[in-house]
């Protein structure tokens, strides 16, 4: 693991340990709640950058099987312990998302909230089954964010990346904290004959 990646992992692990209760008491992302009606009744979901699995638990409760991926084992352990997994539909996987590789046409849903690894975007497109849905929201780059552009989307980047998908919801410049804004996308992979 590169030194920068090791430092980031240490930083996040410390945040999860120091503020475990706060992380675990967060609600699922509002965009996921608002658009939950487009989730299938059953299927396999990838929760990328899952953290303490708040979104994963929300989807398990809806009857979905969820693979929660994060590079922080500390976060995933907190998330898996936070609620009983009586349905057995939550699997936690420690993963360096820079090296993510998924089988083609293997997932019904992908959720990615406030995490950006651009190499994974093409992987997501291939991994979704036809008719599969992606929920994506992360920080939008503004002028003051030029110090770390790799952590921020460019304006309209999600729309450009998911060209050919049916756009169910898209918004840009959504307030999400102290002078921070996000881009949101909910999109369905088109069936072959309908593109």
Order of helices and strands: HHHEHEHEEHEHEE
Q: What class, by secondary structure content?
A: alpha/beta
The number of E-state strands comes to 7
* Strand residue percentage: 25-35%
Total of helices: 7
Q: Trace the largest sheet across and list its strands.
A: 3-2-1-4-5-7-6
Distance between the ends: 40 Å
Structure characterization notes:
The chain has 195 residues and is of the alpha/beta class. It has seven helices and seven strands; from the N terminus they run αααβαβαββαβαββ. α4 links the parallel β1 and β2 (65-70). α1 packs parallel to α5. The termini are far apart. The model has no long low-confidence stretch (mean pLDDT 86).
Write the layout of secondary structure elements.
Blueprint: H1 3-18, H2 20-24, H3 30-34, E1 44-48, H4 54-61, E2 65-70, H5 73-82, E3 90-94, E4 107-113, H6 119-127, E5 128-139, H7 157-161, E6 166-175, E7 181-188
Parallel strand pairs: 1-2, 1-4, 2-3, 4-5
Antiparallel strand pairs: 5-7, 6-7
Helix pairs in contact: 1-5
Summarize the entry for a quick read.
By secondary structure, this protein is an alpha/beta fold.
Question: What characteristics describe this protein?
Answer:
single chain, 195 residues, alpha/beta, seven-stranded mixed beta sheet, 7 strands, globular
